[in-house]
Amino acid sequence: MAEKRQKAVDLSHHLSDVSRARATSPLKGMAKYQGRPGLISLAGGLPSEAYFPFSGISGDALVADSFSLKPTEQESSISWFWKLFSRSNKEKTNPITIPKYAEHPAEDVNLAVALQYGMATGLPQLQKFIKEFVEKIYQPAYDDCTIMMHTGNTDGWSRCMQTLMNPGEYLLTEEWTYPSAVASSKPYGINAIPVAMDKDGMSPVALRKVLAEWDTTTQGKRPHVIYTVPVGQNPVGSTMGAARKKEIYDVCVEYDLVIVEDDPYFFLQQGEYVPKASRAESADTTSEDAWLAGLAPSFLKFDYQGRVIRLDTFSKYIAPGSRLGWHTCNPMFAERLERQGETSAQAPCGFGQSLVTQLLYHWKMEGYTRWLHGLASQYKIRRDWFIDCLAEELHLEATTSNAVSFWKDCVVYDAYAKRSNGWMMSEKDSVGTKMLSFVPPTSGMFVWIKVHFDNLPAYRRGREGEESPEIQLWTKFADAGVLIAPGWFFAADVENPPTDEMEGHFRVSFSNADFAALKKAAQIIARETDKFFKA
Predict the structure, then answer these.
(1) Residues 374-410: pLDDT tens digits?
(2) Which among 37, 222, 525, 529 is most buried, taking Cβ atoms within 10 Å?
(3) For the domain 382-534, what is the CATH superfamily, name and number?
C-alpha cells in the first residue's frame, strides 16, 4: 500500500496584495455550467467553431527512439537538412492529426475545443497526461498537488513573482542566476538578495546566515521566496542533489519560505565529465525507469507541506516556440495563479497545446521518457565534444580546488596556452600563464568559464577610461566570430558581483551550434585568449 500523504498546509499568508485582490473573471466563472446536457449557451462571446478555417491539423512526428543512447559526434553533427533530404539518413516519423471534431470530445483532442476560448488551466487531456507524469517522475510528498498550465517558464516565474511578492520586498536566489528572473522583478520594486553557492548549488549554511542575520528594522520584511534553478544551474551548470535539496527545504520550513523551482534542464542531467582518453565506449543500456531513478530528484519529492512551486517547460524538450509549460503547486497557489492567467494570457495557444498533447498521447508515457533519455545522451555528447575541443586547443590541467568558492572540492580544469610538445610535461617544465578555468557542467547546456585577469601584464589591468578586461576579451571573441555571454549578466547583484575585479566570467552554450562550429569556436576562444594575455 502506498504511504499516506498529508495535504498541503495553509500558506495563504505568502500571497501578495494584488493576488489577494484577484477575483474570478466574470466570464470565466460561467465555465462551470459548460458541458451540461441540453444547455444552450448564449452568454459568452465565443465565435462559432464552424467558422474556424481548419478542418484538422497534422504533422509528422519523430519516433520516440529517434536519438541513439550511444550517439557519436558524426551522427550528432549531421545537419537537419541532410537528415531530411538524404535517403540514408531519412528520419523515421509517424503522422499525428488533430481533427476539428471528435466523437468523444472529452477524451480526444479536437480543434473545436483547442482553438476556442479556453480555461487558463489548459486542455483537460494535457492536464491529465501531465498530472500522471508529475506523479510518476517527481513523486510529490503531499497528496493534493495541482497542475496549472502556463506559456513557458519565463511567464511561469512572472506569475509566481506577482502572486507571492509585493513591491519593496526581496527574493533570495543564487549569487549567479538567470538574469531574466532578476530583470523581470525589478520593475515591480522587487530586488534579489544573493546567496552564496558551493559545488552543489545554493548553500544551506549561507541561506540560513542571510535569514538569521536579517534586520527587519533596517532592511524591511525578511525575504520569504527563493528562486532557484537547481539542475543545470544557469549559468554554472551544477546539479543540486537529493541531500542538498532536503537541507534547503528544511531551512525553508524553519523560516517559512516558498521555493520557486525553475527547472527547464531537469532531463538534461549528464553526469561527470570524463576526459576523452579515459572515456569508455559503451552504449547506455539502462531502462527508462532506471535512468529516471538515477536523476537528481525534484524539490517536490521532499515537499510535504506544499511550499514548492515547480516550473516545467516543453521549451528544451519539444520546442521553445510551443510556449507551453506548467506549474506544479498546492491547490491554493494554483487557484491564485489561475485567477491571474484568466485575465492576462488566458490559456496557452491552442495550436501548441493540441499538437503537443497529441504528440504525448501518440508517444505515451514510455515513449516520452525514451525521447527525454535520448535528448540527455545528445547533450552529453555535445558537452564532451566541446570540452574535448578545448583540450585540443589549450593545455588543460585537472586539479581539485581548495579555494573558498563555489568550486571548492570540484575538479577544476585550468587552461594555459598550448605547448608545442603537447599535453605531457615534466615536473620541471613551466606551464606558463593560467588564463582560464572551468568545471565541466553536470547538467544543462552551458560551460561557465572563469578568466584570470590578475595574470594579465600589469599595464593591461583596468586602465582608466577603458572597458573592463571581461568586456575587452568578450569583444575580441565577438569580432573574431564567436558570440558568448559576458559573466556580469548573471550576477544576482550586478552592482556587487560575487567576484573580484581581476576575475571575469563567460557563459558558453554548447547546445545549438553544430559540431564543426563548436570546434571552430574552441579554436577562436583559445587563440584570442592567448593573444589577449600576450598583448
Answers:
(1) 999 999 999 999 999 999 999 999 998 777 677 888 8
(2) 525
(3) Aspartate Aminotransferase, domain 1 (3.90.1150.10)
